[in-house]
Amino acid sequence: MPTLPLSQFEAKSADPIDLLILSNGPGEVTTWVRPVVQALRDRLGTDRSRLRISVVLSPCANSAGNEAAVARSFPEVDRVQAAEDFWPFLLWGKTSESWEWRDRGVVVFLGGDQFFAVAIARRLGYRSVIYAEWEARWLGWVDRVGVRLPSFCDRLPLRHHPKVSVVGDLMVEAAAGAVNGPADRDRVGLLPGSKRAKLTQGVPFVLAIADRIRADRPEAEFVLPVAPTLDPAALASYADRAQNPIIDLIQGTTGRLVWPSGAIASDPAGDRNHP
């Protein structure tokens, strides 16, 4: 499980702590927020009077629209504010439900603009922790930084090295052990993404790849995970030529959604339909 550099902020007494997680899009919520809140509860306990976890979402151009609902489904999270209520919170500290805040707390950045974490931590008087997958900004203003790779530190001034910890790839942690099944056959994961722009091209493209692989390895099994911000019918719509005109442009493959019972929930037209 991922471990962000929070140790120096853990209370040495029974003082209650607020942990505020800032995030934004579907990928960040499902592959960053979820494994982190699970690890936090495993490490710091489930006593909500001791540790309260809040998730605040900021606007995202690639939003699926249900990130708040997904975050609320995480049992480790105590309260969630949707992206449409973000700006009053950033500018004036006002939440849609008039949240109160404890004296001690940490702001953790897991998606969006890193400046938001700096500004909100300053407003609340909290410490700040940033997870940086590719780049860390505002290093003079944040307290700790968790990075994906050790080589990340090579690009940072030496004075900032003490506040940096290598925590690994949160996305890999989220995916670990997600797919199980027989070990005696080839299994291929098809990962078209979770954002509309990527799915429009990615779904027919990965289905075309599956066609090529299946021709050489007829026994291969293909797994296409569905992001929590999608449902199977929505995912199948990107494989429907009538709903996705990009299919012909990229010479992609169409597909249809078949439920385990055998009932076809979606049967798009096409000469190469994948169940």
Kindly describe this structure.
This protein is α/β, with parallel strands linked by helices and about 280 residues long. The protein contains eight helices and 13 strands. A seven-stranded parallel sheet has the order 3-2-1-4-5-6-7, sandwiched between helices.
Order of helices and strands: EHEHEHEHEEEHEHEHHEEEE
Note the gap between the termini.
35 Å
Can you summarize the main beta sheet?
Answer: 7 strands, parallel
Average pLDDT score:
83
Low-confidence stretches: 262-273
Helix content: 25-40%
Summing up helix and strand content along with how strands pair, one would put the structural category as alpha/beta
DSSP summary, beta strand count: 13
Total helical segments: 8
Strand order, sheet with most strands: 3-2-1-4-5-6-7
Shape: globular
Rg value: 21 Å
Q: What are the main properties of this structure?
A:
disordered C terminus; alpha/beta; 275 residues; two-stranded parallel ribbon; seven-stranded parallel beta sheet; single chain
